[in-house]
Design a protein that fits this description.
Strands 2-8-7-6-5-3-4 form a seven-stranded mixed β-sheet, with helices on both faces. A three-stranded antiparallel β-sheet has the order 9-12-11, covered by helices on one side. The protein contains twelve helices and twelve strands. The chain has helices at about 5-10, 35-45, 60-70, 85-95, 110-120, 135-145, 165-175, 225-235, 245-255, 255-285, 305-315, 335-350; strands at about 25, 80, 100-105, 125, 150-155, 180, 205-210, 220-225, 300, 320, 320-325, 325-330. By secondary structure, the chain is an alpha/beta fold. Helix 7 links the parallel strand 5 (about 150-155) and strand 6 (about 180). The structure holds pyridoxal-5'-phosphate. Pyridoxal-5'-phosphate (PLP) binds near residues 29, 83, 153 and 184. Pyridoxal-5'-phosphate (PLP) binds near residues 29, 109, 153 and 208.
Length: about 350
């Protein structure tokens, strides 16, 4: 007798962060702005005095109420998770496991495929038509494949493309599958289906505190939808999935809506600057760089020399995301954007 590691586990590699000293990190689509003095005080007040002998509130009631107010939905339409990552895992496992395949539109957030595969659920992939998910293709494939779950990010990570609200609603109405719309970047665009999601018994919107809200380290995300679906999430999650400290921190920050909206506006302005700068470089060096339009806080830049550009930036202490034949660069502050644009310009000039 000998223990056999299941092959699907054996072939995985653990998620590894980038080692090294970077003076500028634009690789993970996090917020460019530190919280600042006032929000830090709000945060400190929120977590001080927490009774950490006790388990957290399994329903995360205050947090869900704060999120509901922030997003303009009802509190019983919100379930909280340890990042939207955990919710993706739970939803795929609960709604597709033993039921049917998960349908994705690639390239997209790699976690959809990852979680399907670790649960031994078939993941059927459609290619994107251009930068965004193709709704007609998904509708047809969902029917043909008898998909249990259709999941995609909107706006899309990594392409930055977006699907208009009416199109997403058309998909939801045209399928029996559970449609999970991952709106991690919808804070930077304006086509959310949040105000209509409660009307459907087959749609869930995912939101996160990790991007526009600037709390990636706190690990809080939300599943929002009709009460029946949200209750199902609460049934399948582990009871204490969001720590007391995370609940307190995210609750306090979500109540600072005006400040969060100001910070978000600054991130949108930063993205426009980065996008314009990258497009100007792409116009000067069309053989080496393309810059796609973006609805998110990052810009996707296909390049036949993506690896060389990525290495060149890294040598200067700047980390962006390298994905095959492209770079994905998220917005920093104005000064940080200038720095990455100047560094890229030099590298491109050397190539020309
Ligand atoms: C960053 C990101 C998330 C957020 O994940 P968290 O676990 O909430 O930090 C979710 N979906 C997409 C597409 C993302 O890019």
């Amino acid at each position: 007798m000998a223990f056999q590691m299941p092959p699907r586990v054996e072939r995985l590699t653990a998620y590894a962060p980038h080692e090294g000293d970077y003076t500028l990190r634009l690789d993970a689509n996090e917020s460019a702005f530190p919280l600042g003095e006032r929000l830090e005080r709000v945060l400190a007040r929120a977590v001080s005095g927490a009774d950490l002998r006790r388990y957290p509130d399994p329903r995360a009631e205050e947090l869900c109420r704060a999120a509901a107010d922030f997003f303009g939905v009802k509190a019983d339409q919100v379930a909280a998770g340890c990042g939207s990552d955990e919710l993706i895992m739970l939803l795929i496992n609960a709604f597709a496991g033993g039921v049917g395949p998960v349908l994705v539109s690639e390239p997209d957030f790699s976690m959809y495929r990852f979680y399907s595969e670790i649960f031994d659920i078939r993941c059927v992939s459609m290619n994107k038509a251009g930068t965004a998910a193709d709704m007609d293709g998904l509708i047809q494939a969902a029917r043909e494949q008898k998909a249990a779950v259709v999941i995609f990010s909107n706006p899309c990570n990594p392409t930055g493309g977006g699907v208009p609200k009416a199109e997403v609603l058309r998909l939801i109405r045209s399928t029996d599958a559970l449609v999970i719309v991952d709106e991690a970047y919808m804070d930077f665009w304006n086509e959310s289906i949040l105000d209509e999601v409660a009307a459907f018994d087959n749609a869930i919107v995912l939101k996160t505190c990790s991007k526009a809200i600037g709390l990636a380290g706190v690990r809080v995300g939300f599943a929002i939808g009709q009460k029946s679906l949200v209750d199902a999430v609460k049934k399948v999650k582990s009871p204490y999935n969001v720590s007391t400290l995370s609940q307190a921190a995210a609750t306090a920050l979500l109540r600072e809506k005006d400040e969060l909206l100001r910070r978000r506006a600054a991130l949108v302005a930063g993205t426009r600057m980065l996008e314009a700068g990258l497009k100007a470089l792409a116009a000067r060096f069309p053989q080496w760089l393309t810059a796609w339009d973006t609805c998110a806080n990052f810009v996707y830049c296909p390049s036949p020399r993506a690896k060389a550009l990525w290495d060149g930036l890294r040598k200067q202490g700047i980390l962006v995301r390298h994905m095959g034949g492209a770079l994905r660069i998220c917005t920093g502050t104005e000064e940080e954007n200038r720095r990455v644009l100047t560094a890229l310009e030099k590298l491109l000039e050397e190539m020309a």
